């Protein structure tokens, strides 16, 4: 059972219903697992972030002396965002001796963290005068 809780009254009703379902199993000696976590990022956030990565690629803005692909910009932005927000950034030797960044997964980000990443990417683009689809939509 997966439920999105959006207000206290609705949450109480869901939790009461969950208790009714769990009680019988617990009384029968079965163990149950309940997980409560923040909602992960929205599909609209995913589309916006990937569009920003595409805007960076299209701009041909160089990083370390050469233009980067959207996939490379994603790695750079997620890594930079982690450092800027004081999250863990771990560089480790890879399987073939190369160095890699074990970065957080954007798919597992909360809505709040996803919004922060988008804000970081937009600020990076603005700082480097890179036009984005967001800019074009604002002036349409």
Shape: elongated
What's the CATH architecture name of the largest domain?
Orthogonal Bundle
Structural class: mainly alpha
- The poorly predicted ranges are none
> What count of helical segments does DSSP give?
5
Task: Classify the fold: give the CATH topology of the largest domain.
Answer: NinB fold
Please state the average pLDDT score: 91
Write up what this structure looks like.
The protein has 140 residues and is mainly alpha-helical. The chain has 2 domains: 36 residues; 96 residues, NinB (NinB fold, Orthogonal Bundle). Helices cover 54% and strands 9% of the residues. The protein has 5 helices and 4 strands. It has a two-stranded antiparallel ribbon. Strand 1 and strand 2 form a beta hairpin. It is elongated and about 65 Å long. The termini are far apart. 14% of the residues are buried. The model has no long low-confidence stretch (mean pLDDT 91).
